[in-house]
Write a structure and sequence with these properties.
Layout lengths: L13 E5 L2 E8 L4 E2 L5 H4 L6 E5 L3 E5 L7 E4 L3
Antiparallel strand pairs: 1-2, 1-6, 2-3, 2-4, 4-5
Length: 76
């Protein structure tokens, strides 16, 4: 999945999910990247998109980005 600005979402990205709610990408089915806590074995069935652990809404699966979604910091 890509953010609205065209940047590809990657594991570990710190993002603005929507105004007032930040989160971290905990897996990306599109890039085949999974964290230890959110493994391919558990979430791979979703097939595409990203899983975000957000401050205010918990885990959210996205196939398309929120209109205000944007990258704050990329994990190195």
């Amino acid at each position: 999945m890509k953010y609205p600005d065209g940047t590809l979402a990657r594991l570990g990205d710190k993002i603005i999910v929507w105004e007032g709610n930040e989160g971290v990408v905990v897996c990306s089915m599109d890039t085949d990247e999974y964290s230890e806590e959110y493994s391919r074995e558990v979430l791979g069935y979703l097939g595409r998109g990203i899983m975000v652990l957000s401050e205010k809404a918990g885990l959210i699966h996205y196939v398309e980005p929120e209109i205000d979604m944007r990258l704050i910091e990329r994990k190195k």
